[in-house]
């Protein structure tokens, strides 16, 4: 039995394990939407760290970022903004967690619809998030499909690889929801870090035995075609602060309102979890990306040389053609870990939004009809199957570079709820009219600068859209008025809980009891 066959068997065993792991929690998560979508709000600090970090990293980090660094220079590393992203999660996430405990929020739509007292705004946000979740999930599956083709030397066809990945991801979520996703992410987080460390150590010892990474750097700097990879600090090969800022906004700042990350602010077990996340999440970002940058900026170019034709598949080729089969297998597993963790989280978010915030909300709740919690989970699982087929269509078309799915479509459009989210948490003057105006202006600007006109002055579509979105949100909010009861409920109340210190525990416990009692009655 050759090494390629063993790799295929290993992947199939891993896929079977994922499906089994998901369905272990099938019965437990079938009874309650709280269990299915938020793991009963009981995720401990390590699991929350792991599931949040690896869901942000995605296949883009392991597969796309090293390739982009090889093509565009080390400045592409600015897309992480790790410290900023980690701190934003804690600052914004803690307040959202309190609101989730107080009022039972499960999704971004829950919060934004309630804070801006508008069903219409909730539908707008739901449409944005669901629409652009699909291409981001497709990115994960395309990466997995490409890597399997390269690693198995074409023995596994691309369409079979992506179909397998899609079905496995979907069944994993359908089986256990957030309970399965969060705990499997913890395993994937450890697997991902371990694999990156092994890759760096193996390639360094094998190809640069005399001087290690210093030898690799000297080799790069001594080649005029390779030197720009290390000497150009900008994301487009030449330094410009506008491009770097745009890269940070896209890959770091905006991630806090990506739907699957937004939902993770609701699942923490207690407030101490956020204390741990305040230092551990930024460190996790920096630690993981340190190895990713080493591979893309130093190891890969020093081994394959300049003008590598298939740069998009550089990690897979490096792991198969320049390493023994076990390294190729570990690399493929790592890609699965990063890609699956993000894909299942994104699809679960879309399922929650589509089933709870659109279908159940407008077909049942607003018409005064009661809906069983089991039925909400059932609707969510049906929607997951529909999303699976939509994603497969996008994957089959594969219209752009892998990084474009994240940076030219999903992230810029997700980011248009950022001003309304932050303003709604901290600014008492934020109004429904302001939220509508800002979000719509942001969507229009993003669309124009993404598909029709090159953004001026070196800034990205996302940067321009966020600026004009924020100006519109603030300007319109200043000439309109938010209801006093909304301000008291979503800002004054949260400030009181945070500032009182002791009150938060009793307030949260009371809210949880109320939610659980309501779920039991349903």
**Could you give the count of β-strands?**
0
For the termini, the CA-CA separation is: 55 Å
Mean pLDDT across residues? 83
Binned, the helix content reads: over 70%
Radius of gyration: 23 Å
List SSEs in N-to-C order: HHHHHHHHHHHHHHHHHHHHHH
Q: How would you describe the shape?
A: globular
Number of helices: 22
**Uncertain ranges:** 502-522
Q: Can you summarize the main beta sheet?
A: none
Structural class: mainly alpha
Give the amount of beta strand, in percent: under 5%
Give an overview in words.
By secondary structure, the chain is mainly alpha-helical. The termini are far apart. It has helices at 3-23, 26-30, 33-38, 45-72, 82-103, 108-115, 119-151, 158-207, 212-221, 227-231, 241-251, 259-264, 271-304, 314-321, 325-363, 373-397, 402-414, 418-426, 432-451, 461-478, 484-500, 503-521. The chain has 22 helices and no strands. The protein is 78% helix and 0% strand. 55% of the residues are buried.
């Amino acid at each position: 039995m050759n090494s390629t066959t063993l790799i295929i068997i290993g992947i199939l065993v891993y896929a079977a394990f994922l499906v089994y792991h998901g369905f272990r929690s099938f019965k437990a998560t079938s009874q309650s939407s709280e269990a299915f979508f938020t793991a009963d709000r009981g995720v401990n600090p390590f699991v929350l760290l792991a599931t949040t970090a690896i869901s942000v990293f995605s296949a883009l980090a392991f597969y796309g970022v090293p390739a982009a660094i090889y093509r565009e220079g080390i400045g592409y590393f600015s897309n992480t903004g790790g410290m900023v992203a980690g701190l934003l999660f804690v600052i914004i996430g803690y307040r959202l967690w309190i609101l989730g405990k107080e009022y039972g929020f499960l999704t971004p739509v829950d919060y934004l619809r309630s804070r801006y007292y508008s069903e219409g705004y909730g539908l707008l946000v739901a449409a944005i998030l669901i629409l652009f979740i699909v291409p981001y999930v497709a990115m994960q599956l395309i990466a997995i499909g490409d890597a399997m083709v390269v690693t198995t030397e074409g023995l596994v066809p691309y369409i079979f690889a992506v179909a397998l990945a899609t079905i496995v991801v979907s069944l994993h979520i359908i089986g256990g929801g957030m309970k399965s996703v969060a705990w499997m992410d913890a395993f994937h987080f450890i697997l991902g870090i371990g694999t990156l460390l092994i890759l760096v150590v193996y390639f360094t010892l094998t190809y640069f035995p005399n001087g290690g990474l210093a030898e690799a750097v000297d080799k790069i700097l001594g080649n005029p075609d390779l030197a720009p990879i290390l000497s150009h600090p900008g994301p487009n090969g030449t330094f410009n602060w506008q491009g770097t800022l745009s890269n940070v906004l896209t890959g770091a700042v905006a991630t806090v309102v990506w739907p699957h990350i937004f939902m993770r602010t609701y699942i923490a077990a207690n407030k101490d979890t956020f204390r741990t996340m305040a230092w551990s999440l930024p460190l996790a970002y920096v630690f993981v990306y340190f190895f990713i940058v080493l591979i893309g900026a130093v190891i890969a170019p020093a081994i394959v040389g300049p003008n590598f034709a298939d740069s998009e598949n550089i990690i897979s080729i490096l792991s198969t053609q320049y390493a023994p089969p076990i390294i190729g297998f570990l690399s493929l597993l790592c890609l699965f870990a990063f890609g699956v963790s993000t894909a299942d989280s994104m699809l679960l978010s879309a399922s929650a939004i589509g089933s709870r915030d659109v279908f159940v909300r407008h077909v049942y709740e607003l018409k005064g009809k009661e809906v069983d919690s089991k039925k909400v989970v059932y609707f969510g699982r049906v929607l997951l199957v529909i999303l699976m087929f939509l994603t497969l269509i996008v994957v089959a078309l594969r219209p752009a570079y892998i990084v474009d799915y994240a940076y030219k479509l999903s992230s810029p459009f997700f980011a248009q709820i950022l001003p309304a989210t932050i303003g709604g948490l901290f600014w008492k003057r934020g109004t429904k009219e302001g939220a509508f105006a800002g979000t719509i202006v942001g969507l229009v600007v993003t669309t124009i600068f993404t598909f029709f006109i090159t953004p001026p002055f070196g800034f990205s579509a996302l940067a321009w859209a966020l600026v004009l979105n924020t100006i519109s949100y603030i300007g319109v909010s200043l000439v309109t008025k938010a209801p006093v009861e909304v301000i008291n409920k979503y800002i004054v109340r949260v400030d009181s809980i945070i500032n009182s210190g002791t009150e938060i525990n009793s307030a949260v416990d009371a809210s949880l009891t109320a939610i659980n009692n309501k779920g039991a009655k349903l």
